[in-house]
């Protein structure tokens, strides 16, 4: 039987008008300290964002979202802090266009598979 891992995750949100608190989910960050696993999957639905915020600079949002997996992989000053510190920095409250949900927990025997499942369930459009 594969080892079970307790993990924490947060949903990455795009909040184009911070004062209105409307958002769309754009990704997932998953962290498991014992397994030394920190990864993010970004899946922005450009059409949904365009409908929510027609004046939003989507290219700028995508550029910022693309940084999240890179930070999780250890790039840049934030990424070099260490996995726990990077995760906590990414999920800390921000009053910016890119925000995260509260942190949630789970148990899995497949961290990459769970990241993919969470992304499908929480981020990708259901048609």
Assembly level: single chain
H/E element sequence: EEEHHHHEEH
Which class of secondary structure composition applies to the elements? Answer: alpha+beta
Helix content range: 25-40%
Computed over alpha carbons, the radius of gyration is: 15 Å
Instruction: Assess the beta-strand content as a share of residues.
Output: 25-35%
Uncertain segments: none
Mean pLDDT: 94
Individual helix count: 5
Distance between the termini: 35 Å
For the biggest sheet, the summary is:
5 strands, antiparallel
Q: What features would you describe in this structure?
A:
With 127 residues, the protein is α+β, with helices and mostly antiparallel strands. The chain has helices spanning 46-52, 58-72, 76-79, 83-91, 111-122, and strands at residues 5-14, 24-32, 37-42, 98-100, 104-108. Strands 1, 2, 3, 4 and 5 form a 5-stranded antiparallel sheet that branches. Strand 2 and strand 3 form a beta hairpin. The radius of gyration is 15 Å and the shape is globular.
């Amino acid at each position: 039987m594969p080892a079970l891992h307790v993990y924490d995750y947060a949903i990455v949100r795009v909040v184009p008008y911070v004062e209105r608190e409307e958002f769309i989910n754009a990704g997932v960050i998953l962290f498991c300290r014992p397994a030394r696993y920190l990864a993010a999957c970004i899946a922005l639905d450009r059409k949904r964002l365009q409908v929510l915020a027609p004046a939003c600079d989507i290219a700028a949002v995508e550029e910022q979202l693309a940084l999240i997996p890179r930070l999780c992989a250890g790039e840049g000053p934030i990424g070099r802090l260490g996995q726990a510190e990077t995760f906590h920095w990414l999920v800390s409250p921000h009053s910016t266009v890119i925000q995260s949900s509260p942190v949630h927990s789970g148990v899995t025997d497949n961290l990459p598979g769970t990241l993919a499942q969470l992304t499908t369930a929480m981020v990708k459009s259901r048609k």
